[in-house]
Specification:
By secondary structure, this protein is an alpha+beta fold. It contains 18 helices and 27 strands. Strands 15, 16, 17, 22, 23, 24, 25, 26 and 27 form a 9-stranded antiparallel beta sheet that branches. 51% of the residues are buried.
């Protein structure tokens, strides 16, 4: 098992389209949430009277790496200001959360785990040498309170116990004290054993359950990878077994599992919570880093290039709580909600549709994805996710120029200051691989470099569009890591109002997306053809997609889901054509905000 280490924002700098995406994020909700949203602006974490639990730490978890990746002085200054306040308010015994000392036993200590993770992110970005001591004192205090039974792990903390290992592994590497390993065992003993509850995932109920909560489950996938060394256990790839069950019974075309807000089967009209998208990506980033197993990097690409951009507006001022595979409208649903445990507004785009956890937590998606571009071990550097980036360390410089995943060509410029191997991960779906214009067998490309050597390497391969079978006799179109959908034209209806003392006004208001074009189609048996286009200033533009697939379809009498007038039926009520075939353009799933992704073939 090859273990990789992640680089930091001091070493990786985004370029090309991924830098554009991060700049859009910084100008949108993520970069301004502390100015417009009370849960962050008035947070108790910074000495005010607002939320005292997860929302401020969630936001900082993405805002901090975003600021440092872009080298934005204003954002860095704000991040430093907030972290200075949080650090200054740590109690003498190490307690760091803004909660009354007398009531600590009532506080869900998921927030202790989360702020410890945020502090490690801040340390990686800033190099602030106060941080290891702050984390040490916070987790030592947490450990002592648990050991002395002054508190217990419950609710979210019980289901997310393994998240503490992000900070614990850092402490073990730095301090190596026995209490850290004892704490690791204590956390596992009090935490949830997910292997014991998998039967509940096979036929999920339409009721709220900790055991089927989608964010808990996608976080869980990395639990063995991040914890087994401290626990002194052999790694058995439990994640693959649990992933397999989730995919079989709740999988979507873009690598997600339905969860609105708990697991909800394989229907293309059920939703998936945005928090789970970014947490699943983070799990895959760490699974690949801790295990070196290429399948996690490949699965990460599918999420990052499809599910993440699909559920956020082009300008990144609005997001959904839930995205659907077949999403013909984003309008308020009167009466009984379609979603298992969410209300009828959870799929709207806005500031805080349904719950605010996703408002603060979606920030981590793009920055941490950008940080997964390169990884390293003692003797090797790997191009893990081929995003346009620069890597600069004391012993290597790498520049990667590419428009991947919209194109499949890559130019690497490398300079090594010591002997090392440079590895380029090649995905399993690649065809006709060439390296420096010479044909190669498919598989990772390894380049041996000597100290002082400079190299330029060009790589290209072909990805072929294809149909992939889905449940209920439906199909979806894929090409490499990209999933494609039938886009639906729409108009926006702006909703400006005040709720809980917080204004929703342009540009951070809510929107309904109302469909304006037909969506009731089935694929004909015909070839699929790819057409490359220019990448606009908005990489996943809903108006100017950088690549399309041309396909032929026929209209069918699909119908609406009984009881709803803005939701397509789970499956078509008829598959007989009701019109002539025509050619259409399929957009990347991430570009199609309203879309049909799972269609029948006739």
């Amino acid at each position: 098992m090859k273990k990789w280490q992640l680089y930091t924002s001091k070493e990786i700098k985004p370029q090309g389209w991924i830098k554009s995406q991060l700049e859009i994020q910084a100008k949108g909700l993520s970069g301004n949430l502390d100015k417009v949203w009370n849960s962050v602006k008035e947070s108790a974490w910074i000495g005010r009277t607002g939320d005292s639990w997860e929302r401020m730490p969630y936001w900082l978890d993405g805002f901090i790496p975003l600021a440092y990746l872009l080298e934005d002085e204003d954002m860095i200054s704000r991040a430093r200001e907030y972290m200075d306040i949080i650090i200054s308010r740590q109690k003498e015994d190490g307690w760091i959360c803004p909660y009354d000392d007398a009531d600590r036993s009532k506080y869900d200590t998921w927030a202790v785990i989360l702020i410890s993770k945020v502090l490690t992110v801040y340390y990686d970005c800033s190099g602030d040498e106060r941080v290891p001591s702050v984390v040490y004192r916070a987790l030592k205090n947490y450990y002592e309170m648990l050991k002395e039974e002054k508190i217990k792990i419950f609710d979210w903390g019980k289901y997310r116990w393994f998240e503490a290992f992000i900070a614990l592994n850092m402490l073990d590497e730095r301090f190596g004290e026995e209490w850290i390993r004892d704490f690791a065992r204590l956390l596992k003993a009090q935490g949830t054993d997910y292997c014991a509850i998998t039967e509940k995932w096979k036929h999920p109920l339409y009721c709220w359950q900790w055991d089927t909560h989608i964010v808990n489950l996608v976080m869980m996938l990395k639990s063995e990878a991040v914890s087994h060394e401290l626990l002194g256990e052999e790694y058995e790839d439990v994640a693959e077994k649990l992933y397999g069950i989730l995919k079989e019974y709740n999988g979507t075309p873009v690598g997600l599992f339905t969860g609105d807000e708990c697991l909800s089967g394989r229907s293309p009209i059920q939703g998936t919570e945005l928090c789970s998208v970014v947490e699943q990506m983070y799990s895959y980033e760490l699974l690949y880093a801790y295990t070196g197993d290429r399948k996690w990097a490949e699965r990460l690409e599918v999420l990052g290039f499809n599910a993440l951009p699909a559920t956020i507006s082009d300008d990144m001022w609005a997001h959904q709580y839930l995205q659907q595979s077949n999403q013909i409208a984003c309008q308020k649903i009167p009466g009984k909600p379609l979603f298992g445990t969410n209300n009828g507004e959870a799929h709207l785009f806005g500031l805080e549709p349904h719950f605010g956890c996703c408002t603060s937590n979606f920030n981590q998606g793009w920055p941490k994805f950008a940080l997964a571009a390169f990884m390293h071990s003692e003797d090797c550097v790997i191009s893990a996710v081929p995003l346009p980036s620069e890597l600069k360390t004391e012993d290597i410089y790498v520049s990667l120029e590419t428009n991947y995943p919209f194109e499949n060509s890559f130019r690497y410029t490398i300079k090594a200051e010591r002997d090392m191997d440079f590895v380029i991960r090649i995905p399993s779906f690649a065809q006709e691989l060439t390296v420096d214009r010479e044909k190669r067998e498919n598989g990772d490309v390894t380049v041996k470099l000597s100290a002082g050597e400079s190299r330029e390497i060009t790589v290209s391969y072909v990805t072929a569009p294809c149909f992939e079978s889905r449940p209920y006799g439906l199909s979806t179109v894929k090409c490499g890591s990209l999933v494609f959908s039938l886009p639906i034209d729409y108009e926006k209806r702006m909703l400006e109002y005040e709720k809980d003392g917080c204004e929703r006004k342009f540009p951070y208001c809510d929107y309904e997306y109302l469909p304006k074009s037909d969506w009731n189609y089935a694929y004909c048996e015909s070839p699929l053809s790819v057409e490359k286009r220019e990448i606009s200033d908005i990489p996943f533009s809903s108006q100017q997609p950088p690549v399309v697939i041309k396909a032929r379809v026929k209209p069918i009498d699909w119908g609406l889901e009984p009881g709803y007038d803005t939701v397509c039926a789970k499956v078509p009520q008829s598959r007989e054509p009701i019109g002539e075939a025509k050619e259409i353009e399929l957009y990347p799933y991430g570009c199609a905000k309203l879309r049909m992704t799972e269609l029948p073939k006739i």
